[in-house]
Amino acid sequence: MIFVTVGTQEPFDRLVKAVDEVYNELDDKDIIVQAPLESFKPQNFKTVKFIPPSEYSEIFERAALIIGHAGTGTIISALLKQKPLILMPRICKYGEHRNDHQLSTVQKFGSFDNIYIAENEIALKKILLEINPKELTASKKLSEVASEELISSLRNYINMK
Description:
The protein is α/β, with parallel strands linked by helices.
């Protein structure tokens, strides 16, 4: 199953449209899309604006692949659950966000194993058609707690004050 999630604050029609345009060529047709839409209406799947947290977590767990905007919540969730992830950043000039901080985010996370960066719709479609979600391996698991090294460093800093 593929889970497409673009957050609940802003529409991201460009990403949803790109997935819709290649849907018929995908091996995995089981797709759930959480996305508020502005004007685009997908032909090949339904979308939901909001998924309650418990259901969202369950869908995330079942997914073989996550496709999303470059929001930190999506990225952290994928790393915690060791899910392969395709990120397409929202771009300010298209009215998708207030600034271009998601471009900086993808630059940083593009070096992680099994996080694929699609700079635009063409790149997203290309990645979707080239990869088989069932053959992807998970990225390194992100711990839910801070490392002992970080905690120790913070303690030392606090004790110096």
